[in-house]
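Is this the right way to post structure tokens for a design question? Let me know if I should format differently. Anyway, here goes:
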């Protein structure tokens, strides 16, 4: 079997004195998309923040390409080939689309140039001189994804990429992410929209109260979709 690209083992994490994660274990294989599903506050975003080094108070092991990254800072983790698109997108609101795309460094071979970004995200090309603050929610999400691809990541961490977007824009984002996956990009996806997750992920890890409850294949999720939709909508 192919060794995991990312392996998280016995991960505990805290915000202050409050423990948010309890012995989380998960893996992402090369070219695989794994979705983290669960109710709000279940620990999904905390898992991404822990992997990316944003959350520092944690124990356990996080290995990427077989190397321990648990104690590295976020910039060092990014240099290894992991990119993070947070739920708030975190683009530079006062900079233009063009400037947002030109600013990030290329840290890995295969980092996208501006032309490739515009080819993949045509909506951004027409808005190149507009500031980030003047973009629609969908355009901001596209820019957030395009910007991290400049660094040439091997693994994308995506936090609620469909959140708050119109259905037609969700479809566009989905097509873009499926295209990246077809090219071999690995992804760890936090997603409340179960139908969106089903269109993209190979496996689905269900979080309950900071713990991994179970991991399901896409076929298993489809067989239990009514149960899971009822649970996630509460």
């Amino acid at each position: 079997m192919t060794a995991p690209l990312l392996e998280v083992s016995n991960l505990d994490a805290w915000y202050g004195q409050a423990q948010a994660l309890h012995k989380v274990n998960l893996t992402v294989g090369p070219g695989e998309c794994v979705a983290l599903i669960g109710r709000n506050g279940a620990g999904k975003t905390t898992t991404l923040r822990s992997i990316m080094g944003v959350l520092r108070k944690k124990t356990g092991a996080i290995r990427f390409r077989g190397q321990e990254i648990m104690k590295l800072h976020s910039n060092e983790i990014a240099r290894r080939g992991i990119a993070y698109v947070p739920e708030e997108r975190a683009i530079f609101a006062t900079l233009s689309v063009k400037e947002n795309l030109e600013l990030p460094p290329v840290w890995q071979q295969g980092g996208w140039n501006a032309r490739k970004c515009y080819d993949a995200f045509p909506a951004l090309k027409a808005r190149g001189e507009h500031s980030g603050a003047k973009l629609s929610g969908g355009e901001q999400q596209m820019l957030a994804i395009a910007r991290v691809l400049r660094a040439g990541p091997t693994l994308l961490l995506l936090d609620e990429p469909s959140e708050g977007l119109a259905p037609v824009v969700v479809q566009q984002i989905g097509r873009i992410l499926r295209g990246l996956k077809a090219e071999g990009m690995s992804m760890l996806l936090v997603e409340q929209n179960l139908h969106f997750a089903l269109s993209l992920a190979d496996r689905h890890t269900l979080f309950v109260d900071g713990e991994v409850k179970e991991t399901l294949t896409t076929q298993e999720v489809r067989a239990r979709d009514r149960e899971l939709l009822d649970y996630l909508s509460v």
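Format looks fine. Someone answered above. Worth noting: DSSP finds ten helices and ten strands in the chain. The two ends are 38 Å apart (CA to CA).
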